[in-house]
Write a structure and sequence with these properties.
Length: about 120
């Protein structure tokens, strides 16, 4: 059987991050549901989604493009988590844990992208 994007550790970690993000954001203020909550969730979901789509493409060039999008989503998420933290929606310890996982994923995406060239 061929390897799947599901076998990639970076994809697995990104799925863990999405799960953590959903658990945390369900406690955000209700008036943020269509604002910061939605933005954070979309950025987080974009990471494993683009890794998966890129892995299913026919060329390493296309994979690289989707990895670039996933990497960009990591940067978006970094900004949004910082905003949430500054607004008091995330406790410092929770913020640090989420951002640490996000950083790890970002580095893995960058390394995977670099390995394609």
């Amino acid at each position: 059987m061929d390897k799947s994007y599901k076998d990639l550790i970076v994809w697995q970690k990104a799925i863990d991050l999405v799960t953590d993000i959903y658990q945390v954001t369900k406690h955000f203020p209700k008036d943020e549901l269509y604002g910061l909550t939605s933005q954070i969730r979309r950025s987080a979901v974009s990471i494993p989604s683009n890794i998966a789509e890129g892995e299913c493409r026919q060329s390493s060039k296309e994979l690289g493009q989707f990895l670039s999008i996933a990497w960009g989503s990591c940067a978006e998420l970094e900004t949004q988590l910082l905003i949430a933290s500054r607004l008091g929606y995330l406790e410092a310890e929770r913020y640090l844990k989420l951002d640490s996982l996000r950083q790890e994923i970002s580095k893995m995406i960058f390394a995977l992208r670099k390995s394609l060239s």
